[in-house]
Amino acid sequence: MSIALSRSRALAFSLPALIAILPFLGACFYIFRFSISGDKGTIDGYSIQPYLDLMTPFFGRSVWLTLKLAFVATLVAMLLAVPLAFLLTSLRSPLARRCLTVTILLPLILNLLVQAYGWILLLGPSGVLNSSLRSLGIIDRPIFLLFNETGVLLGLIQTSLPLAVFPIVSSVRGLSQEHLEAASSLGASQWRTFFDVTVPLLRPGLFGAASIVFAFNASAFAIPLLLGGRRVQMMGVAIRDMISPLFNWSGAAAAGMILIFITLIVLLFSSWLVRMTSENVRH
Amino acid sequence: MRVGLLPNEGGGSYRFVIIALAIVGILISSLPVIVVTIMSFSAADNTGFPPEALSLRWYWDVIALFTADDASSAQSVVDSTLTSLLVAVIVMGISTFVCIPLAYALARGDRRIRGGMELLFTLPLVFPLVILGIAFLLIAESLRVDIGIWRIVIPHVALVLPFVLRNCLGAMNGISVEIEEAAVSLGASPLRAIWDVVIPLMKAGILAGLIFALIISFNEFTITFFMYTIDVSTLPIWMYSRTVSSLDPSTLALSVFIIVADVVLIVLVDKLIAGRASLF
């Protein structure tokens, strides 16, 4: 039979897609080459000066802020994603399931500007939250939630939540019913079953989801730009500022390489964790 | 007895905490969109909450914006919407066209190659968009020729490839080799078997991938933010430049149009791949 795919035909079938992704790979290489350029504006010679120039307290603060916000946002997103995944998998009605899917998925796909408008309307000085709290007499003066870390954090949690929920949903679907039944028939309480059976079984999926959410949040740009203004200099925004007012292209490329490096470390660390924990489960 | 992760009755504090957290999650996901929708019906000029009266005036504003032939502005909303749509359609076409044969080759080919290729085509998903924007901008600037709309299309294709491939692969997984073998043993050439048997079976997955590519490209902001020029600009960029100083209610009405379009398309994708594959 001639169904078995010959090597040459497999290559021919893959070629269009490889050509389509080539510009992306080229862009990755270009940014790396620029980050070790001797000149700030063009690729010229080799130097590690762009990296040395980044060793400033300003950039250090930006890295720290990025890590902190991404970490907190990931933690909260995971805390909300697990119950959402449970709810999504236990809904019986197809209509309810579809509504919930759309509600969760929309923030990932919808134009980030529209969502930023939503947060501005919610959190602004005359926004929904402040007017409600004021009419209830809880506060006298508006509390400031926009253009600081709180606003950015909420935006990050909202946009990264779908990236956490859907991988967890597939792990939950793969969960064996017998384990849960065994735990409950042996008299374990719901909490006990959750912490001793469900979470350990889900752990590989949880680490996988958390690492993608973290990488997504650490490299966020539009949300900190729109909700944080100049006050919350996450790395994405700091890198943009190096280009737009300063024209420091090689510096921006070097900062970008550091950002890529951070996300890569997190992804590798989590895949290592997944391998470790899934071995533990098997034994 | 079926032991659910979410008990239907009883369960005490466990059930309460899980439901409460899920509700917080739903609120965080949906509140911004809901507030934008409510405020777009406000009759007032400002965006104070709650709106004192309701009206459709901002919707009429948006329609006027689209129908008025005001040639004075260099980049009108009509131009940027058309560019957005054109880019999205080209991106959709290219990404689907390249992903179908790739999904076939990965599903039928060598297992060892498959893992590596899947990883390669997932990279754009975790790669920082800012860096991608800057890198593509640097490359586009260093080119001697003006590549017009392709300066936005090429990065968008890279961006949607993971989603389209995931959907095509999901569709391929359900198609057994035997069906193809049957077609070939009945005298069809292998290529003909693919075209007449495999592709029709992949239809739902292909359509889901098409729609995914369309919505992602149409809503993309970050990379386009670096790549746009005076001649080539998309709707999200137009919205950004309009609201950079203050939020104006007619933009909210325009946002509602986008929200409705996105919701309809997501429901379509969800219907197409219902229960057979995960969304990504």
Describe this structure in words.
Chain B: Residues 81-269 form the ABC transmembrane type-1 domain. Chain B: Keywords: Cell inner membrane, Cell membrane, Membrane, Transmembrane, Transmembrane helix, Transport. Chain B: This is Putative spermidine/putrescine transport system permease protein. Chain A has helices spanning 7-35, 49-53, 57-90, 94-109, 112-123, 128-135, 149-173, 177-185, 190-218, 222-228, 235-243, 249-282. Chain A has one domain (44-282): MetI-like fold (Orthogonal Bundle). Chain A is globular, with a radius of gyration of 23 Å. Chain A is 77% helix and 0% strand. The two termini of chain A are 42 Å apart. Chain A is built from twelve helices and no strands. Chain B has helices at residues 12-40, 57-67, 77-108, 111-120, 123-126, 129-142, 150-173, 177-185, 190-219, 222-227, 235-243, 249-272. Chain B has two domains: 12-64, no CATH class; 72-272, MetI-like fold (Orthogonal Bundle). Chain B has twelve helices and no strands. Chain B is mostly helical and 280 residues long. The longest helix of chain B has 32 residues, at 77-108. Classes of the chains: A mainly alpha (283), B mainly alpha (280).
Shape of chain B: globular
CATH hierarchy: architecture of the largest domain in chain B: Orthogonal Bundle
**Overall average pLDDT of chain B:** 83
> What is the third-level CATH name, the topology of chain A?
MetI-like fold
Mean pLDDT of chain A: 85
The counted number of beta strands of chain A is: 0
Our measurement of the CA-to-CA distance between the termini of chain A, rounded to an integer number of angstroms, reads 42 Å
Keywords (chain A): Cell membrane, Membrane, Transmembrane, Transmembrane helix, Transport
GO biological process, one term (chain A): transmembrane transport
Membrane topology (chain A): Multi-pass membrane protein
Family (chain A): Belongs to the binding-protein-dependent transport system permease family. CysTW subfamily.
